[in-house]
Amino acid sequence: MDQSLERYSRQILFQHIGKNRQKILMNSTVAVIGGGALGTVSSSYLVRAGIGQLRIIDRDFIEESNLQRQILFDENDISENLPKAIAAQRKLQKINNKVKVEGIVTDVNYSNIDELTKDVDIIIDGTDNFETRFLINDFCIKNSVPWVYGACIGSRGVVMNIIPSRTPCLRCVFETMPQIGSFPTCDTAGVIGPIAGIIASFQVAEAIKILIKDYASVNKNLLEVDVWETKLRQIDISELKDINDCQTCKLNNYEFLDAEVGIMTTFLCGKNAVQVMSRNTGKIDLRQLEHRLRSISGVSCNAFMLKFRVKDHSFTVFADGRAIITGTADSSTAKSLYSKYLGM
Description:
The protein is of the alpha/beta class. It contains 13 helices and 14 strands. It has helices at 9-13, 18-26, 37-49, 75-79, 84-95, 113-116, 130-143, 170-173, 186-189, 193-211, 240-243, 286-292, 331-342, and strands spanning 29-33, 53-58, 100-105, 122-125, 147-153, 156-162, 222-226, 231-235, 263-268, 273-278, 300-301, 305-310, 313-318, 323-326. Helix 3 (37-49) packs parallel to helix 5 and helix 3 crosses helix 10.
């Protein structure tokens, strides 16, 4: 066997892959949006499977509570104050140095999704909010890029393939954004590690099928798994593509991709925190900002982020102008604090 294929020998022996399809995988580029529980598991399996290029994109930093389910991180990453994308890149590169791994520390939004996912063959959903998922859906339908939706909470999770022109899209199933408070979150319902591992494993299996164009084997249903109750259910969604006047895949109305400029806020699952970002902000000088905030005690800064605390609120500021403000779930309060201390 070709020496470059030897490490994938057991995968190549699998009747649905073989040498030729393994080479397709080795020439594929995948973007994983979100480096949390789903993203770390899916990235690990993709790199081990021999994907040619992997881009893992995440806006967040590592906290101790992440270690329960986010398998690429350890306590040393926390002590080094590393963003998830950077820590993930380092670990993934050690797993397989033949794969080009790029960790990108940023928030995915309407203004940068095109650049961040340029030339990818598929996108894997590792996010924790519907706003970003609807944005991914808009982008993928408009640009004919397949993606694999995944979500988990408590002991339950779901997976769905979205292949433009072949399957229903996310908005065929969820026509509008869920109302705040209508869905459980990891803050209200918790989440256990095994369900994240199972859902991410299904996502990678489906992504491999799509990449090698084994469409006959691709799951056409919405898959629902409950690892605690030991239940697996397939929900037939095939008719939704024909019976709904979907805003995205039928009417080509890309509401999330065509968002207006201004301040963006996103409530972060399980953290009593809000991410605030100005769409007009370029890269900022963290050291300069550290100097400007010198009157506040306890300011710390490295090449990736700046941290400080004011009364009941903690700030983590990234070089792309984003700030994660903990101690509030109110977007107006977060915007006010952002403006007050960052001057933007």
